Structure formats: C-alpha cells, structure tokens
Amino acid sequence: MSSSNDQNSNVQNSSDLQPGFSSIPARDTIAPWFQGARRARLAGAHGLKKTIFEEISDLARQHDAVNLGQGFPDDDAPQELVDIAQQMLARGHHQYAPAAGTKDLRDAIAEHHQEWYRFTVDPDTQVVVTSGATEAIAAAVLAFVRPGDNIVTFEPFYDAYAAITGFARVELRTVPLVFDEATGSFQPDCEALAEAVDDKTRFIIVNDPHNPTGSVFSLESRKAIVKAAVGASALILVDEVYEHLVYDGDFLPFSHTPGAWERTISVSSSGKTFSLTGWKVGWATGPAQLIDAVRTVKQYLTFSSGPMFQPAIAHGLRMPREFFTERAEDMGRKAELLISALEDSGAKVIRPRGGYFVLADMSPFGIEDATQLAQVLPEKAGFAAIPVSAFTTPEFEGRYASYLRFAACKSYATVEEGANRIRASLADVAREVARGGAEA
C-alpha cells in the first residue's frame, strides 16, 4: 500500500523545496493547490513542470510524430450530434442550463440505464449532469470527505484522482493492480486492499474499464471491493467513462455488484462514448441522498455547462444499440492494429478488454524505465507514447516503469501509420536507449 498524507509528510516551508520553488511563499507550499500539484507529480526539480501528456504532445508536434500518447480522438464525432449542437446554437441556446442538467438529458440517461442494464434510476433525484466526468469525481470528493479521512484507489490510476485528493487535503492510499494470469488482465491486490481500507476510509475510487491498463475488473475483484467498503462503512466512487468501449462482451456497471448500489456513486461521460471530449458533458448516478450532495457541490463549481450540447447528448444516448456496439468493435480493431505491431517488434503486450489504450512492456528490449524512451521516440521513431509511471506513486512506480501506453482512439489512418512506424523503429530505438546511446 502506498500512502500520501500531505498534512504529516509534505513540505512545510520553502527552505525544504528544490531551488525552483524558492520563490514560493512558505504558506503556499502547504496550500491545497500545491499539494494537488505534488500528488499529480507536477513538482519537479526546477519548479512546477508540464504534465507528461503536455511534454510528449509537444515533442510529437515538434517532430511531426504520430501522437499515440494523449488520449484524445482525432476521428470524426457522430455528425448528427454535431448537427443538433449547431442547431441549438442557432436557436439561441447560450444561457445557463439547469444546475442538475436539462430534463431531457436526465431522462435520456435514465432511459439508457434501463435499455442497457435493465436498471431503473430516477432522472429527477438519482441523476446529475456535470461538466465532464472529472467534475463529477471532484464534486463527490468535496461533498463527502472530512478532515482525517483517507481515500483508497488502485494504481496505476488516472492522474486527476491524485490531484483532487490533494486539493481536498485528504490522505490518498493506493493499492497496486497485479497481472492475473487467469483473466489475462490487471486486477486489484485484494490482500493489499483489505490492509489499506480502515474506518477512516471515506471513498474507494474504482476505474472500470480501467485507464491505463484496459482491464475490466472481475466479479471476484468487485466483490472484494464491496466487502472492504461495507466493512469500513465507506462509499464507492466508480469512474465508468469507458462503459461502452468494452471490445468483446457486455459491460456490467459496478453498482450491480451485490451490496454496491446503496453506497456507490457512478460516473460516466459523453466524451469517450461519442469521441466528444471537448464538449465536457458528464453525469453521476446513484442513490438520491448521495446525488443530492454531489449536486449541491457541483452547482458552486460550474453551476452548469453546455446548454447547446446537452440536447445532442440526449439524442446520442437514445441511438440504437448497434451504434454503441459498432463503436466498441471499431475501437477493438484499432487496438489490434497496435497490438500486432508491438508484438511484431518484440514488446510484451497486455491485451486490453476495453477503453482507449494498449499497454506494452519494453523490458524485452532491456528497458527498465520507459520514461526516457518515451522522450526520444517522437524524434527517433516518429511516434509518441506515454510512460505508465506517469500514473503511479513513487512507491509503486518500479512495478510499471518499463511499460508504455499507446492510444488507439485515433482515426484508422493515424493508427495504421503509427503501427507502421512502431514496426520500423521501436525495437532499434528501444535497444539504443537501453544501451545508453540515445538522449532526449
């Protein structure tokens, strides 16, 4: 178990900082913004630094490389949704939407749950629309955490979890995911989970399907999480933004796990499902008393957003099942293109079951830490990838340090060109880096 408790262990005055922070007032080094930056590993040796996503994307642009790093789609969104948004703009939908989201969108979310999962949620009391999934996660954390609480999540993890817990000034405890031969995927270390959760645990944050590993948690893993939460009287916050991008088979929401619903806030988003990440339309569902709290906090963060986008997303959620299954299958085919190229190159690939990404282990090339490799790939090989260490705490970084993450959420032309460049150059560049012969 990894633990970050800023109130006890973080920097207390500017003299303790690296030289780049010497100009920051001492009071700011224990301020929430700084603790969030530390948790997200933005506090470098020379001051605040770019995220690894910005750094690698900048290198990709500089060297005209295929960007398989940052997880933004570059293919077309569904045109009929774009047309609806344009119509709403033309009709003057420029003012605040209701704080909880438009009635039509909340109804569509409830209908979608019933259609896909045969599960009823009340659109008036058990649904709230947010400015993307990240706002829903932040609002939930701010709604429920108290001084002295801790939050448990699984690592590697989406970096926003670390930043949000830092802003909230609560301890973050992480449980490693371990490769499970039976499922061929990463699953929680259930013994470490039981050790990490205690009576001060306010949330267990679950990302399923998982970024960056592409894993879908097994029923056994889910039951272990629920058991730990029930034993500690903790809540469960589930990030399910990839729910419609499971390549093979149906996805079952975490809240359907026996004993989960009454303590679970489920978060999803239109961004990943419809390749509309810039529209920032997300939502949370769950028991009314939990959603009331999230809505209360959310209305003082953004109040509302996207009045021209919400009608389009409502339409999208009512599209035929074939639309969603075809998009998932399409993403799976793109992932297979990358998997094939990586395996042909000699990398060890973890086959994803869903989501945007493919993980590949560079250790067969002699790479122990893939960060330097990621920094030279845009120039030396013509493509970009993200080191998985960006999604870890220092304690567990070594477990995943040799892995790179590749984004499949691109057009076929982009993925195919990236796959060609992987085949042509990855092995040679990786071996050169392993020998110490390439520099960023």
Describe the overall structure.
With 440 residues, this protein is α/β, with parallel strands linked by helices. The protein is built from 16 helices and 17 strands. The chain has helices spanning 6-9, 32-39, 52-62, 79-90, 103-117, 132-144, 159-167, 190-196, 219-232, 270-274, 288-298, 310-317, 321-345, 370-380, 397-400, 412-434, and strands at residues 2-4, 43-44, 47-48, 66-67, 127-130, 150-155, 171-180, 185-188, 201-207, 235-239, 264-269, 282-285, 348-350, 357-361, 383-384, 386-387, 403-407. Strands 1, 5, 6, 7, 8, 9, 10, 11 and 12 form a 9-stranded mixed β-sheet that branches. A 4-stranded antiparallel β-sheet has the order 13-14-17-16. Helix 4 (79-90) runs antiparallel to helix 12 (310-317), helix 6 (132-144) crosses helix 11 and helix 14 packs across helix 16 (412-434). The radius of gyration is 21 Å and the shape is globular. The model is unreliable at 7-19 (pLDDT under 50).
